[in-house]
From TrEMBL:
Protein name: DNA replication protein DnaC
Start and end residues of each IstB-like ATP-binding domain: 10-239
CDD domains reported for this sequence: AAA
Single GO term (MF): ATP binding
């Protein structure tokens, strides 16, 4: 049997994981130790893992996370008001599949962005499309899209994103035009996608971030009702890294 020809055909069909596993088997003594069923299962598993890993890398790259983060890196020994059991439940991702939202508040440096990104990486691992923005960057992108005619295309892209992370909400006031654009975004995603919002401000102070009170009511009603809450406390974690 011409294994090189078979190997090339597998690559031509873009079965790269299958091809690599096939090469490893034919180049070693493993071939004799596999039954036919085991060999086929091994090759299929290799192809599946290769495709999954490529998709995961693509999802992470497209998400544009602020930082790499994982649950294994979260320090539960520092008293920050975290509910470990709740975080572990959130890690499973059922809340995203049910299109629930999550609000993380607390002073600067306590780990809001890190937890949000860790949940984002976990969503990517579950093959869920994720996007990360700071609140200011998102508002700037929407404003630019409105000006250059790509607004509906950009909003459609965000609407189809299963998990949207909006970091550092409330650092500046949202003007009238941005209020309406944010309402468009929230209304489009409400009930069909999930959003994580982090903020130094407690939720009760968010209303003051909007210059348009009526629109603020509509936005906050959709974002806060039924959302999960994590209220972090304590000193900046940056202090403990020194």
């Amino acid at each position: 049997m011409n294994t090189n020809a078979t190997f090339e055909k597998l690559h031509t069909m873009r079965l790269h994981g299958f091809a690599q596993a096939y090469r490893e088997i034919t180049d070693s003594t493993q071939e004799k130790n596999f039954s036919l069923d085991e060999c086929i299962a091994h090759l299929i598993e290799a192809e599946y893992e290769d495709r999954y890993n490529k998709k995961l890398k693509r999802l992470i790259r497209q998400a544009r996370f602020k930082q790499q983060a994982s649950f294994e890196q979260i320090n539960f020994n520092q008293p920050r008001g975290m509910d470990k059991n709740m975080l572990l439940r959130l890690q499973q991702g059922d809340w995203i599949k049910k299109s629930r939202d999550l609000i993380i508040t607390g002073p600067t440096g306590v780990g809001k962005s890190f937890i949000a990104c860790a949940l984002g990486f976990q969503a990517c691992a579950q093959e869920l499309k994720t996007m990360y923005f700071t609140a200011n960057k998102l508002l700037d992108r929407m404003t630019l899209a409105k000006a250059d005619g790509s607004y509906f295309k950009f909003m459609d892209k965000i609407a189809k994103t299963k998990l949207l992370i909006i970091d550092d909400f409330g650092l500046k006031q949202i003007d009238h035009k941005q209020c309406n654009m944010l309402l468009d975004l929230v209304d489009e995603r409400h009930g069909s996608s999930s959003t994580i919002i982090t903020s130094q401000l407690p939720v009760k102070s968010w209303f003051d971030c909007f210059k348009e009170p009526t629109v603020a009511d509509a936005i906050l009603d959709r974002l806060t009702n039924g959302s999960y809450r994590i209220e972090l406390q304590g000193e900046s974690m940056r202090k403990f890294r020194k």
